């Protein structure tokens, strides 16, 4: 069954924007990304995500900008770094919200990426909710004993490693039951293909924005 996706296209756009932001001193680019992200979350009424977007990068952005102001008094560069931090946060939030990592991995696996790498990463992704649940249980049980563990406590990491070691035989058996074998060609029930119409629209829109930014910069 053919399944059309746009995750590879979005991932490529995000990658290009990340590289561009990292090396560009174009201040308007950062403001455009930040503005579009805020506008979209407001129109979609994703108030919780908007609050995360505003508050989470605030301390790193202020710290970076303040360090530059203290050492060089270059307010323009400080503003660039401040806005760049929020731009990276916006791209990360877009990636987490709209790019399906599972679809992306399966698409790459069907187009030549090693099955060992793909299924190894898929196992990690599927195990994350269980690991999160176990760490929450550690937090609750420690509080019942009057012990408050910080997030950097080695107990959390030891628990994650213990879960991985415990599940390893079960995961191997499950993959064998599903007819997975190393270095063997696989057939696929869901064949992932790029949605050409939506991808073309995204690429055209991205190209228009890039051209407008370059014109404004001149």
From TrEMBL:
It is a multi-pass membrane protein. It is found in: Membrane. The chain crosses the membrane at residues 12-38, 50-70, 77-101, 199-216. Keywords: Membrane, Transmembrane, Transmembrane helix. Coiled coil: none annotated. CDD domains: EcfT (cd16914). It comes from the Bacteria. GO terms for cellular component: plasma membrane. This is Cobalt transport protein. It comes from Gemella haemolysans.
């Amino acid at each position: 069954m053919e399944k059309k996706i746009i995750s590879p296209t979005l991932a490529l756009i995000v990658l290009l924007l990340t590289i561009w932001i990292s090396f560009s001193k174009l201040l308007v680019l950062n403001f455009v990304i930040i503005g579009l992200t805020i506008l979209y979350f407001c129109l979609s009424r994703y108030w919780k995500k908007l609050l995360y977007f505003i508050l989470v990068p605030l301390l790193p952005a202020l710290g970076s900008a303040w360090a530059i102001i203290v050492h060089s008094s270059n307010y323009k560069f400080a503003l660039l770094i401040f806005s760049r931090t929020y731009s990276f946060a916006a791209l990360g939030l877009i990636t987490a919200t709209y790019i399906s990592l599972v679809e992306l991995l399966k698409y790459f696996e069907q187009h030549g990426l090693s099955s060992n790498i793909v299924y190894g990463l898929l196992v990690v992704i599927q195990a994350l909710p269980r690991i999160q649940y176990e760490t929450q249980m550690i937090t609750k049980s420690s509080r019942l004993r009057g012990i408050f563990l910080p997030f950097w406590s080695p107990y959390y990491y030891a628990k994650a490693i213990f879960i991985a070691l415990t599940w390893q035989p079960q995961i191997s058996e499950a993959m064998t039951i599903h007819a997975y074998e190393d270095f063997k060609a696989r057939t696929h029930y869901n064949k992932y293909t790029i949605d050409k119409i939506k991808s073309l629209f995204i690429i055209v829109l991205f190209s228009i924005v890039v051209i407008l930014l370059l014109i404004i910069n001149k």
